[in-house]
Description:
Layout: E1 2-5, H1 11-25, H2 32-37, H3 40-52, E2 60-65, E3 71-79, E4 90-98, H4 107-120, E5 125-131, H5 135-143, E6 147-157, E7 160-170
Parallel strand pairs: 4-5
Antiparallel strand pairs: 1-2, 2-3, 3-4, 5-7, 6-7
Helix pairs in contact: 1-3
Amino acid sequence: MRVRRATVDDAGAVAAVHVRSWQVGYRGQLPDDLLDSLEAGQRVPRWTATLEATSWPARGVLVAEDPSGQPAGFASLSPSRDGDQDSATTGEITSFYVAPRTWRHGVGRRLMRSALGELGAHYRRASLWVLSTNAPAIGFYEATGWRADGAVKDDVLAGVPIRDLRYVRDLAREDAGPPAHIDPRAR
């Protein structure tokens, strides 16, 4: 498996992983009709725009590929969007999804190490938001060094009240510079 910086050409694959991860991972947490109605094509414009706005080292998307070269996950990185965080020193993982077919095969851990390396090249702290009912994701984040800081966001999605929890972690300054675990051929 390799992790590389995504390009605009990856928009469709990122959208497909995003939708499939939602459909499997949020089943029982969000309405089935919402999950069943999701289509990758609906998310391609969003991911195309995100990938066009890439500006390393502060903003971009990483793609994890399985041994056959198929996208197996992605992490979208940006300056913090939270008003109580300093966006000059705090980066955010705005999306982190791994294809369900690769869950529990080390893809998430490898992708997280790469994301933290990229963030550490530019920021001192990192944050992310996770659905409060998503116990598997919370367990993964806590196992990879994240901790809840008490911040919450309440919203309504498809008529269902949801709550997101913010997780944070400090980034080691030795991560500064291009992360060694990103495939240099993919730059």
